[in-house]
Amino acid sequence: MLAIFLRIPPGDLLDGMRSEAAIDAVLVTAKTSAIANLLILLVGTPAAYLIATRRFAGRALVITLIELPLVLPPAVAGIGLLAAFGRFGLLGDQLTALGLSIPFTQIAVVLAVTFVASPFYLRAAIAAFEAVDPNLPAAARTLGASPARTFFRVALPLAAGGLGAGWALSFARGIGEFGATIMFAGSLQGVTQTLSLAIYEQFDVRFELALAIGAELAVVSAAILLVVKLLPSWTRSPSGSTTLFAPSRST
User: Taking Cα atoms as reference points, which of 155, 179, 148, 164 lies closest to residue 73?
Assistant: First the structure.
């Protein structure tokens, strides 16, 4: 890691970070990662809560399918997305009828990032909700709180630390995604070329620029790791309890 920052002079490293290719890659990565992570949070949080608090037939199979992208080779993920959403894919006719073409667009980048990164959040979210004392939501329901109010005022705040850590890991995995993205979305500068794809393209063209973009990713990754380490302390009170998120006693 140190060699990335020492291989070229700091001035050249900063110049590389300010290059057009690097800026375009940052913008594409930021936009697609933000949308993908919003989808992961909006869909994954209630899904994880239901899986964590319900026991049903096939639950183990559902969790296995959720975790499958963790071990699935990126090339398989990319060709699977292409086989599903491509012009001649499983949903190709329906998408064409709607006037949609997904491959090699930013929508494809969002889908690829969502597919490979969501298991990191879902696994952590399920574990976080399972760690919540079931007596607390039950007490809230007994006091007249609706299921939605119980979720937002009790379960969600108590699981916030684990949810935040899972989201940080999911975000980190998403910004580093390469294999599925290059197969499903391609590497078009300013359109679908993310930071990881920019490093690959510049590797044989301008190695110094590839190092500069790699340094950007290294800084972001270190910052995310720091957030994961500090998050538990942010969500606890000095006494060690999560009184900050304590539900109101009124109903």
Answer: 179
